[in-house]
Amino acid sequence: MENKNTDSRRWEPVNKLYKISSFVDIYKSLQYLRKVTEENVLGLLPAADLLQLQGVKDACCDFLQSQLCPTNCIGINTLADLHSCKKLITSSEIYIHQHFSEVFGGDEFLSLSSEQVIKLISNDRLPVSSDEKVFESVIGWVKYDLGSRQCILPQLMEHVRLPLTSKDYILKNIVVEPLILNCFKCYHYVFEALNTINSEDFIPQIVRNIPRHGDKVILAVGGNGFRKINCLEWFDPRTDQWHFGPELITDRCQNSLVVINDNFVFDVGGNVYDFEPHRSVYMLDLSSESPCWQPSVDMLVERKLSGVGVINDNIYAVGGFDDRFGNLQSAEVFDYNTQAWRMISSMTSIRSLFAVGVLNDILYVVGGQDQSQRPLDTVECYNPSMDMWRPVANMRVRRSCAGVGVLNGVLYAVGGVDGLDCLSSVEAYKPSTGVWTSMADMLLPRKYPEVVTLEGTQSILSHFEISSFSLEWTKWEF
């Protein structure tokens, strides 16, 4: 293992650091020094483990955790596993996963066993921006000891999710790699990936086709307007490809979608069987081996075209429309931990066709239309800790059927209609200033746009097209 503060110095084996005859002497030295250091930690930890000195062991683990860096995290994880330091095992594994792109080129990674490499690269939560990095790590590991490792390459490639890399990368880098060219099984995985990328049919849900949970994708569920469908699709922005996912239990439209903890997808309300609003909620667990939709807890109020948002694992369902009572002013919250809905304070005004966004744990309701179907420029926000709604500054433009997104502490209102025209305009709200500011217009007017933030970019979905807005360039592009 390497010291966090230097790249040249290494922690040597215990017998090179200490001229001490027993673990008891090591413990006595700690009593004298009263401090865990780089020089004594590799002797103290096994001594504390053997003598069951939990306090000393905890102090060693805390010190090692503070020293975690890309060049020593694998060694620290191995040491933690050797001495059953559960907390340090978990924290070092998380660190390795979070910094995989930096870890895989280091000496510690290259010294791992094949079993350890497979365990690492098969992890669904490996937060790589692309499996291109995983492929490069596998090739680098094999080439480090080519004579003994080349035969293991097919086992490793089984866990590289090539269909989720780009076609251009496969053609320029993978098909020309000599190790791949000389391995029939590996080349089979390459053909499988190219066929998947080029296919317009349903893609089989094998592990190599499923995004890692560290990969951010866009989900689209249900129908639009009065067209009910039971389809789920997901869009991979890295490959610019749409894929089909598990079908909904029933056809739906005018429903709402939220995600908790990057794993649990909730489909809330909408029209189901008879174009009447429903209280039903369905949940999809993306972390399960075979994800499928399951009934969740029904809402307390029937809603379609409602606004939804998530704050601290709580789902807020706001307003919407009921065929019997018209526009709804009420709101309710679902506590994921207790699995129960409860009513909260109603909005200050009755509105429909509004947009919802969450910024700094505050729920914002933006625009919409009143009971006379007049577009609104008003905005109000809800503070969960106070169970209170209050108005904030009006937008510069009246908008119903707009979209809302949040990026870098700013709330964006996008498109919609002003009563006469479909809008391409965008405006931004900063809570610190309390005012709305005009931003660059979209390339096209959009009604009912859905706004998603991915890697510092706002992506807008509408009418089978996606466009994106980058703060860095302050412009829109397809």
From TrEMBL:
InterPro entries: BACK, Kelch-typ_b-propeller, Kelch_1, SKP1/BTB/POZ_sf. Keywords: Kelch repeat, Repeat. Gene3D superfamilies: 1.25.40.420, Kelch-type beta propeller, Potassium Channel Kv1.1, Chain A. Residues 73-175 form the BACK domain. SMART domains: BACK, Kelch. The keyword Translocase does not apply. Signal peptide: none annotated. It comes from the Eukaryota. This is BACK domain-containing protein. It comes from Macrosiphum euphorbiae (potato aphid).
